[in-house]
Amino acid sequence: MEGFNHSRVSEFVLLGLTDSPDIQIFLFVVFTILYLMTMLGNCLILFTVISSPNLHSPMYFLLSNLSAIDMCLSSFATPKMIMDFFAQQKTISFEGCISQIFFLHLFTGTEIVLLISMSFDRYIAIRKPLHYNTIMSHRVCVGLVVTSWMVGFLHTMSQLAFTLYLPFCGPNVVDSFFCDLPLVIQLACIDIYVLGIFMISTSGVIALISFLLLFTSYIIVLVTIKNHSSKGSSKALSTCTAHFIVVFMFFGPCIFIYVWPFKNFLVDKILSVFYTIFTPFLNPLIYTLRNQEVKTAMKKKLNNQYFSTGKTTPRILVQ
Fold first, then answer.
1. Cα end-to-end span (Å), the chain
2. Superfamily the domain 2-293 falls into
3. Strands 11-14 and 91-93, how do they pair?
4. Which residues does 139 contact at the CB level (< 8 Å), separation at least 6?
5. Sign of CA dihedral 199, 252, 248, 223
6. S-S: 74 plus which of 101, 199, 233, 280, CB 3.0-4.6 Å?
7. Is 173 helix (H, G, I), strand (E, B) or coil?
8. Are 260 and 199 in contact (CB under 8 A)?
9. Shortest CA distance to 298 belongs to which of 306, 240, 115?
10. Cα–Cα distance for residue pair 6/287, rounded to 1 Å
């Protein structure tokens, strides 16, 4: 933490998504609704999985952890962005900026490993159904989740190991709605070429390899299902296509932004919205709420809640 003492910059200025007041009001409404729906949807999934014994399986255990991560990922920058729509000066302290970088790479790194774990779970369920319960035991599932958080933590610490000690001695304008590492390190008063190469190897390349692994796993699952059941192949194709769209929306912007860290594109800010706001919003819809078991469990919980709070209502209606 001594690196903070060597910085002459005490705060950064965030340019946000737009300067137009009318567009800012529109975006304020849209992102507020998306954020509230994201938190509500993921909380509902967590409550349903935890309180429903029939959902205590490896797949839903991993999905509930995905919901928890999505809630964190959508909260590290979105609330500040929403409040900044009405701020005259969109600033963030140096410590706050570093914190955003820390949490961004922690949550994205964790989610990448968790998505790979989920694809491994589906691979075992399709390819080795008789050994599924043995391989995907509770201990293995907990180990996968713990490993996801450990990898995310190690990844974000590797990104901040050098960033904390960079000299920021003048420029402090970040052309985004949050502090992203490729934009912040360009404000340092030294040559960042070596650091940029390191960032490519630890972020851009890792995201690209992980994306290719996930894409390969989906292909294998689809081929396996098609060879065993022509009836289930169309449903599996629909499910995997929906999953792949969300994966592409998450990995695509990360790959594009971090593979070219020395270039700033106008589309970068739009792409950042996808993996920080849209993906956490879509994950509950694509991965969980389209699942019949989850929908049945939710309806059962809602019905139980309705009758427990209004037991006399049916009698009044009958009379």
1. 71
2. Rhodopsin 7-helix transmembrane proteins (1.20.1070.10)
3. antiparallel
4. none
5. negative
6. 280
7. strand
8. no
9. 306
10. 45
What is the Cα Rg of the chain in Å? Answer: 22
**CB proximity list for 49: less than 8 A, separation 6 or greater:** 55, 56, 60, 61, 63, 64, 294
Longest Cα separation, the chain? 81
CA distance 42 to 32: 16
Are 266 and 12 a contacting pair, CB within 8 Å?
A: no
Q: How far apart are CA 116 and CA 287, in angstroms?
A: 14
pLDDT at 82 (0 to 100): 93
Q: What pLDDT is attached to residue 9?
A: 80
Helices (H), the chain: 21-51, 58-73, 78-84, 94-127, 132-135, 138-163, 181-185, 193-199, 205-228, 230-259, 267-273, 279-283, 292-309, 313-318
Rounded CA gap, 17 and 28, in Å? Answer: 11
Q: Are 98 and 60 in contact (CB under 8 A)?
A: no
C-alpha–C-alpha distance, residues 65 and 82, integer Å: 26
The residue ranges of the chain whose pLDDT is under 50 are: 1-7, 311-319
Supply the pLDDT for residue 119.
Answer: 85
Boundaries of every domain in the chain: 2-293
33 close to 194: Cβ distance less than 8 angstroms: no
